[in-house]
From TrEMBL:
It comes from Rubrobacter xylanophilus (strain DSM 9941 / JCM 11954 / NBRC 16129 / PRD-1). Keywords: Cell membrane, Membrane, Transmembrane, Transmembrane helix. One of its GO terms (cellular component) is plasma membrane. This is Sulfatase. Residues 273-555 form the Sulfatase N-terminal domain. It is a multi-pass membrane protein. Pfam families: Sulfatase.
C-alpha cells in the first residue's frame, strides 16, 4: 500500500512529461485542430457499425460483438495515426497547405462513404462495393431517384451537419479551446528538433499496423464482408477481384461455338402465331398463388396456370432485370458484371428471339412502365432486336400514378398496347411487357384496393404490388381477347427475379442468392394446348424461354446451339448455375434438390437439401465430403470463367471484324 501511495504523485509528473513530448511533436492548437475532427470521425464510424451489429438477423454475444467491431476500431485508429504522423513530418508552409486540404477532403469523403455503406446495408443487407460506387458515379442521373427515395429530412440534415463540421468544425474547436483562430498551415509550430522524423515514422508505422489488424479475417466465423470496416472491405474486394479474375479456372470459348449465326427453319407444323412475353417485376415464386396456394395474391395467374405449361422449379440466372431479360430473350447467360455490358452495341454473343422472329416476318415491340433512362434500356432493347420501344416517356401519364422512383402503375401500358395491336392485328408480331409496380419501394395506386396478406408491413406492401400486377395481367389478357388476338397468341409469363425480405439477412434482389431471390414463376400459355395444365418438375432456368417459344411455334434452330432447352422435350436433370449481380460476391449450383452456395471466401460456404429444407435454414455444409465441395466450387468457377470468356471472345471478334472492314489510311477499297 505504501508503494502505491508513493506512486500516486508520479502520475501528474508522467502526464506533464507526456504533454511536453506531444507538444514537441505538434503545437497545442494543432493537436486540438486534428483531434477535433479525427475523434468525432472515429466515434461516428464505430457507432454506425454498432448499429449494424445490433440490428442484424442474429445479434452476437460479447465476444462476437467485439470481433465484428474490431476492424472498424483498428482502421479508424490507423486513419487517425496516419494523419497525425503526416502533420508531424510536414512542417513547411506550402507542404502543410497541401496536406491540410487533403486532410479535410479525406475527412469529408470518409464519412460520406461509411454513411453510404451503412444505409446501403440497412436497405439491402449487402455491403457496398467499389464497383457499385463507380456505377453510381457514372450513372447518377439514372439512379438518383433510387437515392432520393431513401433520403429523408433526417438524412439530409445529418449530411449537412457532417459537411459543415468537416470544413469549419476544427477551426471553431481551436477558437473555443485557445481563444484564438488557428489553422495548422498558418503557423510553423515549434521548431523541429534533431531526430524528429523518428516519431513521425513511428506514428505512420503504427497507422500501418492498425490498418493491417483491421484487415484480418473474423475470428468467430462471421462473414468477412460484414466484419470488416466498410473502407477496408471495398479495398480488399478489389484486390480479391483481381486475383479471382486470373486464370484459376482454365476456360476457353471458340467464337464458332456461340449462337451468333442462328436462324429459324420452319417444320411441317410451323405456324406464324403471335408471341407475347410478360416480365413481372420482382415476383418471387413463393409470392405467386400457383406456387403457394395458401397465398391468394395472383388469382388470375393461378387460373391461367390451370391450362398452361408451368415450370415448378424455375430459376433466374442472375437476379437483376437486365440480366434476366438477356437470358430469356437470347438463350445465353448474361454478362456477370455490373458494367451493363449487355447494353453495349452488339455485345450479346447470340441472336435473340425478336431478331429471329423478325426474319420470319414478325413485327416486334417492347413496352415498359418504367423510365427508359435506367441502365440504358433503349440500347438493351435494340440489342435484342426489337423494332419499336415504348418506355414511360412515350406514354400519357394523365390519370395514372407514380408508384416508385422508376415508373408508373402498369396500367399505363394498356392504351399504348391497344393502339399498337390495332395497327398490327394482322400479325404476326412479338410484343413484350415489362412491369414495374412490384419494384422497391412497393407502392400501389391509391385507388387500388389492398388486402392483408402478411402481418409484416413491408412484406404486405410488396404482396399487394404483386396482387396489383396480377390485376394488370388479367386486363392485358382481356385486351387480347377483345381484339380477337388471344387464340392466335402464345403467351409467356415470368418474373425477372424474386425479392428478399430479410429471410437470410438480405433485402431486395441483386445479391439475394437464396430461393426468395432467384426462384421465379414461369409458365407458357397456349390457348390451343396444355388443357388441364402440365407441370415440369425438373429444375430449369429462364434460358429455356427462347427454345421453348421456338418449339411452340413449330420451328427448329439451325446454325448454332443455345444454352437453354425446350421445356416441351423430356428433360434430363442437369446442374443449374446462378450468380449474384455484383461480381465475385456469390455463386450457386442447384443440382436437383441440392444447392451449394460459394461466397468467394468472404463467409462460410453453404449447402442445403431443398427437399427437406426449402427455405434454406439449415446449412449442412459440414456433412459433405471435402472432395465433393471442391468439385462443386471448381464447377462454378469454371462456369463463371466460361461466361466471361463468351463475352470477351465475342467482343474481340467484333473489333477484329471492324478492323478488317476498315480500309487502312491512304488506301482505297478494292474495286475503286
Amino acid at each position: 500500500m505504501k508503494i502505491l501511495l508513493n506512486f500516486v504523485p508520479m502520475i501528474p509528473s508522467a502526464g506533464r512529461r507526456m504533454a511536453s513530448r506531444l507538444r514537441g511533436l505538434l503545437a497545442y492548437e494543432d493537436w486540438v485542430y486534428l483531434l477535433s475532427l479525427l475523434v468525432p470521425l472515429l466515434v461516428y464510424n464505430v457507432a454506425l457499425k454498432v448499429v449494424r451489429i445490433a440490428t442484424q438477423l442474429n445479434v452476437p454475444g460479447p465476444l462476437g460483438f467485439a470481433d465484428q467491431l474490431r476492424s472498424d476500431v483498428f482502421f479508424n485508429l490507423g486513419y487517425a495515426a496516419l494523419w497525425i504522423g503526416l502533420f508531424v513530418a510536414v512542417r513547411g508552409r506550402f507542404g502543410r497547405a497541401a496536406l491540410l486540404a487533403a486532410f479535410h477532403l479525406a475527412c469529408l469523403l470518409l464519412p460520406v462513404l461509411t454513411t453510404a455503406a451503412h444505409f446501403y446495408y440497412k436497405t439491402t443487407g449487402s455491403t457496398l462495393d467499389y464497383s457499385l460506387i463507380v456505377l453510381t458515379l457514372t450513372s447518377f442521373e439514372e439512379i438518383r431517384g433510387v437515392i432520393a427515395s431513401e433520403m429523408t429530412g433526417l438524412h439530409w440534415g445529418l449530411l449537412s451537419a457532417v459537411l459543415f463540421y468537416g470544413i469549419a468544425g476544427p477551426a471553431v474547436a481551436v477558437r473555443l479551446a485557445s481563444g484564438d483562430w488557428h489553422v495548422p498551415v498558418w503557423a510553423e509550430g515549434p521548431s523541429r528538433p534533431r531526430g524528429a522524423w523518428r516519431p513521425a515514422l513511428a506514428t505512420c508505422l503504427a497507422a500501418g499496423a492498425f490498418v493491417l489488424l483491421s484487415a484480418l479475417p473474423s475470428a468467430t466465423g462471421v462473414g468477412n464482408y460484414f466484419a470488416r470496416d466498410a473502407i477496408v472491405n471495398m479495398v480488399l474486394n478489389e484486390v480479391a477481384t483481381a486475383r479471382i479474375e486470373e486464370p484459376q479456372v482454365v476456360s476457353s470459348v471458340s467464337v464458332e461455338d456461340l449462337p451468333t449465326d442462328t436462324r429459324l427453319v420452319p417444320t411441317p407444323r410451323a405456324e406464324k402465331r403471335n408471341v407475347v412475353l410478360v416480365f413481372l417485376e420482382s415476383v418471387r415464386a413463393r409470392s405467386a398463388t400457383p406456387y403457394n396456394p395458401e397465398l391468394e395474391t395472383t388469382p388470375f395467374l393461378d387460373e391461367l396456370a390451370e391450362d398452361s405449361l408451368m415450370a415448378e422449379n424455375a430459376y433466374a440466372v442472375v437476379p437483376h432485370t437486365s440480366k434476366s431479360m438477356v437470358a430469356a430473350h437470347c438463350g445465353v447467360e448474361p454478362p456477370l458484371d455490373t458494367k451493363m455490358t449487355e447494353s453495349e452495341p452488339d455485345a450479346i454473343p447470340a441472336r435473340c428471339l425478336p431478331e429471329l422472329l423478325e426474319e420470319q416476318g414478325y413485327s416486334t415491340v417492347f413496352f415498359q412502365s418504367a423510365t427508359e433512362n435506367f441502365e440504358r434500356r433503349r440500347a438493351l432493347v435494340a440489342n435484342f432486336g426489337y423494332e419499336e420501344f415504348y418506355p414511360l416517356e412515350s406514354m400519357d401519364t394523365e390519370g395514372h400514378h407514380r408508384v416508385n422512383y422508376f415508373g408508373y402503375e402498369d396500367d399505363i401500358m394498356l392504351e399504348p398496347s391497344r393502339r399498337w395491336l390495332e395497327e398490327h392485328r394482322d400479325g404476326p408480331f412479338m410484343a413484350t411487357y415489362l412491369t414495374v409496380t412490384s419494384h422497391h419501394d412497393y407502392n400501389v395506386p391509391p385507388d387500388f384496393e389492398t388486402k392483408e396478406f402478411s402481418d409484416k408491413e413491408l412484406v404486405n406492401r410488396y404482396q399487394n404490388t404483386v396482387h396489383y400486377q396480377d390485376a394488370f395481367l388479367k386486363k392485358l389478357f382481356e385486351q387480347y381477347k377483345e381484339l380477337g388476338l388471344y387464340d392466335e397468341t402464345v403467351f409467356v409469363v415470368m418474373a425477372d427475379h424474386g425479392e428478399g425480405f430479410g429471410e437470410h439477412g438480405l433485402y431486395q434482389h441483386d445479391n439475394t442468392i437464396y430461393n426468395e431471390g432467384i426462384k421465379i414463376p414461369l409458365l407458357f400459355h397456349d390457348p390451343r394446348r396444355f388443357e388441364g395444365g402440365r407441370v415440369v418438375e425438373t429444375p430449369v432456368q429462364n434460358l429455356s424461354v427462347l427454345p421453348t417459344v421456338v418449339d411452340l411455334l413449330g420451328y427448329r434452330i439451325e446454325g448454332g446451339e443455345y444454352r437453354g432447352r425446350s421445356l416441351l422435350d423430356p428433360l434430363e436433370p442437369r446442374p443449374l448455375k446462378v450468380s449474384c449481380w455484383v461480381e465475385n460476391r456469390c455463386l450457386a449450383l442447384i443440382d436437383g434438390d441440392e444447392k451449394y452456395i460459394y461466397h468467394f471466401g468472404h463467409r462460410e460456404e453453404e449447402y442445403f437439401d431443398l427437399s427437406e429444407d426449402p427455405l434454406e435454414k439449415d446449412n449442412i455444409i459440414g456433412r459433405q465430403r471435402e472432395e465433393r465441395i471442391d468439385r462443386l466450387r471448381n464447377e462454378l468457377l469454371f462456369w463463371e470463367a466460361y461466361v466471361r470468356a463468351m463475352y470477351e471472345q465475342h467482343i474481340a471478334s467484333l473489333r477484329q471484324e471492324e478492323t478488317t472492314a476498315t480500309p487502312m489510311e491512304g488506301t482505297s477499297p478494292a474495286g475503286d
